[in-house]
Give the backbone structure.
Amino acid sequence: MSPDTASDFSGRPGTAVVTGGSGGIGSAVCILLASRGSNIAFTYGRNESAAAEVAAAIEAAGSKVTVGQVDVTDATAVKDFVDSAAELHGGVHTAVSAAGPYVPMRYVSQIDPQLFQEKVNVDLFGAFHLVWAALPHVRESSGSFVAVTSMAVRRFPVKDSLSAIPKGAVEALIRAVAAEEGRFGVRANAVGPGLMAAGMYHELVARGDLTEEMLDDASKNIALGKPGMADDVAQAVCFLASDQAAYITGKVLDVDGGYKI
């Protein structure tokens, strides 16, 4: 199989389902998958205008799109969306968990149980609900799951507990799926973004959670000397979902510019 064919989704029946498809990273994933021939079914939380822009970009790429406003903490709502997308598009070949809330930078001593529960509900339960809902369809297609997690699971930045802890659990979920579902031809992997000029980055800067001094210090610890972009993560997600990664499962691909070196 040639590299061009291996990265092309146009021959696959069904659709890719992406949660959090209106966000910075999620939208890049949707648009890149569409540009490579995949139909897209994506969810969004509150930003209807951003979702409409992503849907238009998917259609401009020549792919079919289904959009739904879905609370990923609601298992039934996620299942209804996935089942509907599978029926409409003739199956699901890829499921990508990219939904994630704004995560404030806090020391563990500053986190109250309610805030912690909120972040776990979206990050961990949101990812689990997608796996639970999509697994029967992904089994049928011998497809793959990809979860967007965080490099912070492996090199912990101070005050990043609300991201790293739930994402660490999501990576354990991905390994469980890989270990148990491989017999059905199902693969499961994760992508761990480092410092990205995308997604919640701009909100963290606007709220003062990331200061210029903190950004300068972080960039000095990145071998490539700069933050990454949403497309860097999308490229990794699409690679892991493609036939180029047909013998890769249960792994985490950190996209961090060399932060862990």
